[in-house]
Amino acid sequence: MNLFNRVISLCDKKGINQSDLEKELGFGKGTISKWKSNPNPSAEKLLLVANYFDVSTDYLLKGIDADGLSEKDNKDISKDLDSIMKKLTSGEDGPASYNGEELSPEAAELFRDELEIALKRLKIINKEKYTPKKYKK
């Protein structure tokens, strides 16, 4: 995925179209479309887009979050998280409980958030530990 596709994807997630984003940021019409063939916007424009979507410029340019995780890493984490939460909420192995009390939906959501943080941290640690030296930056 390139810069243009990432911006369009972020627009879709936010529920706006490309021309709305251009108007919102004060860009000329078609500015973002030009990034499809020439993905070298000015640093100022790149920063405006990054701030608008609350992402890093590294994410826009390379698809890497500020924490060093790629889009694939985030997809893997999301897939694992969904799988774990599905097992937890399905009740296959009985109801999820803590201290003898069944987990409330609010507690399950808090657990999900904490589990996501733990999975991201674990992914970062594993990348540092198991990436061969020749591939490290």
UniProtKB/TrEMBL annotation:
SUPFAM superfamilies: lambda repressor-like DNA-binding domains
Residue intervals of the HTH cro/C1-type domain: 7-60
GO molecular function: DNA binding
Identification of the protein by name: Helix-turn-helix domain
Organism: Blautia obeum
Organism taxonomic ancestry: Bacteria, Bacillati, Bacillota, Clostridia, Lachnospirales
